[in-house]
């Protein structure tokens, strides 16, 4: 008999990206019935989320919720800010960074993947001095400016 559950028993961590512990109150909320995404309850919830998310991100500016998977947002970010043939500096930080680089290549970009050698880049990330050194070496300014994000809060 084929066993489909490859996870050991016990509590698991959500790894998109992560690992991120999921609090019990969130797990309980996820077990509630869904609401109609075209109904008034969903509209009211959406407006409340938009209002409160401004507090979380400490902004007065408009917030956009992008209705796609994370991969869909990656693609939108790349195709709306860069053009085929653009050189971009990307950083080895693990599995998602590798997928980001592959997507950039498929879209015709020319990514340069910067990181620590071997598997040291995974979970350790790229060092700020490596980024600075590489950008200083780009005297012709052929690497396009871009933004970065982190999935972990800064240290307290």
Structure description:
The chain contains five helices and two strands. Helix content is 37%, strand content 6%. The chain is extended. It starts with 23 loop residues before the first helix and ends in a 19-residue tail after the last helix. With 156 residues, it is mainly α. The chain has a two-stranded parallel sheet with strand order 1-2. Among the domains are: 37-67; 70-137, no CATH class.
State the main characteristics:
156 residues, two-stranded parallel sheet, 5 helices, 37% helix, extended
Main sheet? 2 strands, parallel
pLDDT averaged over residues: 81
The beta-strand count equals 2
The helical percent reads 25-40%
H/I helix tally:
5
Q: In percent terms, what proportion of residues is strand?
A: 5-15%
Distance between the termini: 49 Å
From the alpha carbons, calculate the radius of gyration and give it in angstroms: 20 Å
- The string of secondary-structure elements, in order, is HHHEHEH
Low-pLDDT sequence parts = none
Classify the oligomer.
single chain
């Amino acid at each position: 008999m084929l066993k489909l559950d490859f996870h050991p028993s016990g509590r698991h961590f959500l790894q998109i990206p992560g690992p991120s512990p999921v609090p019990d109150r969130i797990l309980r909320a996820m077990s509630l019935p869904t609401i109609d995404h075209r109904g008034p309850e969903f509209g009211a919830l959406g407006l409340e989320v938009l209002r409160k998310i401004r507090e979380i991100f400490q902004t007065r500016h408009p917030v956009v919720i992008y209705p796609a998977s994370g991969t869909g947002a990656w693609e939108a970010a790349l195709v709306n800010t860069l053009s085929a043939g653009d050189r971009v500096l990307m950083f080895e930080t693990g599995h998602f960074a590798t997928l980001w680089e592959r997507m950039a290549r498929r879209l015709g970009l020319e990514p340069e993947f910067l990181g620590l050698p071997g598997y040291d880049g995974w979970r350790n990330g790229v060092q700020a001095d490596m980024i600075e050194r590489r950008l200083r070496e780009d005297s012709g300014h052929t690497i396009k400016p871009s933004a970065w994000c982190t999935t972990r809060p800064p240290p307290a």
